[in-house]
Fold:
Amino acid sequence: MSFSENVRQVEGSATIAIAARARELRAQGRNVLDVSVGEPDFRTPEFAAEAGIAAIQQGHTHYPPVPGIAPLRDAIAGLIQRSTGVKTESGGVVVTSGAKQALFNACFCLFGPGDEVLIPVPYWTSYPALVRLARAEPRFVPTTAESGFRVSVDDLEAARTPRVKGLILNSPSNPTGAVYSADELAAITRWAKQHDIWLISDEIYGRICFTAPRAPSVLDVVDSLDRIVVVDGASKAYAMTGWRLGYSYSTRVVAERMSSLQSQITSGASTPAQYAALAAFSDAAQGEKAVAAMAEVFTSRRNTMLAEFREHAPDVYCFPPDGAFYLFFQVDQFFTPAVPDSTAFCSWVLEETDVALVPGSAFGEDRFVRMSFATSSDILTEAIKRLGHLLQPAGVRG
Structure:
């Protein structure tokens, strides 16, 4: 069967594929510990969920304005202003069906055939696919654990060609948990501005930070939104993944173009979800309390995981995350002819220990795998104990 060139290079999400296999094994009665999917295990804060229910009961179930209901756009602009001190306007906000749609909108509006977009490695799995859907080409910029899995201006300049039109930056990072400092972001934004390169800053994990109440934003270090699109949403910090509520913030001109594109795709995010997010973003007291409580738990889990690895798998290198809720650890020392890469490694681990991980190949870094700590400490401790029994210094016997 022949398919369009539009989707020829698009593959399914590796994280979802691993989760599907884990469900199959669990259905067979096996005690599978799924630490693969990046979804908070908390309930949506009650006050936000109640606002969504109330919206349905009050009849707010019809088409919304494409860029979002006005009160929510105002609330998002206000939230950004409270967080960064930057004077904002709601006209720059486009509410989307999850942060992924905001990223798609930006890529599709800003890039096209012949363009290249810089993507630091490791990267979130969808970035290359979104760039290719826009008929542009991803240009990968390697990083190392020694560099903190962060790119420098020198790295970006070495990768730049005349065709480079964009850069997608993710801080805190999925999968590494790396966080860029304000000084690093300032240098990168100056470099991007100098070369007329669009900067898409994915800040969806910004409030899950272990070194500060929030990770630095590009909005902290710029005096103009020119050629900048910030992407965020309610999914991670507010445990609202299933509500599918994200947003972008940019200049009004860019926002209007992305809204026009969205009008031909989804027509806008779910109306009840917008009212739930309105409560989350506008009720500063309850919203901040909920976010801080979840961040505290994630901090505790992070520390537990690092300690458990030191005890049960001391020869495994774990990159210490400064944000998000993932642990990226190195496994290439266990590769053999029978288990030659991270995909085979994760399959082997799943079958042998009933622990579901995500291969680093999904993120462009095949030497590592990702473990999510968006689950209970008890599950994390048991998962690491199982891994420790398997990952002995002698390695895998293929």
About this structure: The longest helix spans residues 284-312. Residues 5-43+287-390 form a domain with the Aspartate Aminotransferase, domain 1 fold (CATH 3.90.1150.10).
